[in-house]
Automatic annotation (TrEMBL):
Pfam families: FeS_assembly_P. The lineage of its organism: Bacteria, Bacillati, Bacillota, Bacilli, Lactobacillales. It comes from the Bacteria. Transmembrane segments: none annotated. Residues 17-90 form the MIP18 family-like domain. Gene3D superfamilies: Fe-S cluster assembly (FSCA) (3.30.300.130). This is Metal-sulfur cluster biosynthetic enzyme.
Length: 113
């Protein structure tokens, strides 16, 4: 396993993670038409030495046929961030996703109370 990022200050790490989350807000779930951040699909973003980024996500359903599309969109969204040299997307299933993870915006957009 790679070593956690030590060469950046805590504030720099926060800034980079904010840039990553902003980029991920442009990744739209093709079936629902809402970004993966507001859907609550992004579980964790970790930074490591050498500019390596690991993004842990889940999907709304196991066996989602669009997993590869979403993964490619994530990689493309993060690519312009200059501090990130390599990105890996890890698909996780625990904790299981449920609608309570969605933002208020996503619930309203999908008509969920």
């Amino acid at each position: 396993m790679r070593e956690k990022k030590t060469e950046w200050t805590e504030q720099k790490i926060v800034d980079i993670k904010e840039q990553i989350m902003e980029a991920l807000e442009k990744v739209i779930d093709p079936e629902l038409g809402i970004d993966i951040v507001n859907l609550g699909l992004v579980y964790e973003v970790d930074l490591f030495d050498g500019g390596f980024c690991e993004i842990k996500i889940t999907l709304t359903t196991i066996g989602c046929p669009l997993a590869d599309v979403i993964t490619d969109d994530i990689l493309n969204a993060v690519k312009p961030i200059s501090d990130i040299k390599e990105t890996q997307v890890k698909l996780v299933w625990y904790p299981a996703w449920d609608p309570s993870r969605m933002s208020r915006y996503a619930r309203i957009a999908l008509g969920i109370r």
